[in-house]
Amino acid sequence: MDKVRRILVCVCKERASPQRALFVQSITGHFIDGGDDEVEVNCSLEKNQFVVFRGEKGGGVPLKRPAFCPIKHLSVTEAAAIPLDVQQRGVDVGVAVLLQTANQRVLLTRRAKELRIFPNVWVPPGGHVEPDETLLDAGLRELKEETGLKLEPEEVCPKILGLWESVYPPMLSRGLPQRHHIVVYMLLHSSLSHLQLQSSLSPSPAEVSACVWADGGLVRAVVSAVDGEDREVGVDDLPDTVSADGGLTDSSLPLAVFVSRAPASGPDVERVSTGTKFALELWLKSLETPDP
């Protein structure tokens, strides 16, 4: 048997055996009736399969897709036009780390402009889960590779905040889907402040072009800029610039970058990813209702 090179999503309904999800299949849509875009699910990573299933009510995490999810709106004709090698990819699994400092800031990174997928977009550190890794192992590895921050499993308190169905390009108006992921947003609590962690921050230029330790005020502004909507953004008297960290080229960035929305057409813009906004909103809620 060929060695597993990628962890793929499998879906399971009721007591049926897990089945590998198809590239053109909406994972969110698999568990809901109608046009809803969010559902509570459970997940497990076993034998290099990431299984998403419905468990007992109240014990799961939110799984969400954007209202404009390309897979949701894909027509039969458009699905048939996707190259066969892309269709055969299945749905990949990624993990993204929301690193919360002792003084309640979270680390956001700007993806390098040379990257093929979501260049120049702000996200938490993260990437693919490798074979035989746990989700925590993958998150800590990606955190170290991208930012230089090395944390040990016993130093953090991991919690899955939610799952995000991510497709690239993010809208059909920008082309047919090329990548389809379920991103696991994992919250890690550090006992150190962002200033204490800052001395160890050493981003990889091949992957990260800037870093920001976002506080609650900035995060609230970010999540108020809902992609696909045009309601007013709550900047709450925030300064016009945001301090960047990590020793890279930008020392400050315009606030407008962090409250930009995903454009419906044309080239993408520097912005916080839609999935990251979902995760940051869950993070804000976790601050309001901390674990006992």
From TrEMBL:
One of its GO terms (biological process) is NADP+ catabolic process. Its EC number is 3.6.1.62. Its cofactor is Mg(2+); Mn(2+). It catalyses: a 5'-end (N(7)-methyl 5'-triphosphoguanosine)-ribonucleoside in mRNA + H2O = N(7)-methyl-GDP + a 5'-end phospho-ribonucleoside in mRNA + 2 H(+). Residues 88-239 form the Nudix hydrolase domain. Transmembrane segments: none annotated. This is m7GpppN-mRNA hydrolase NUDT17.
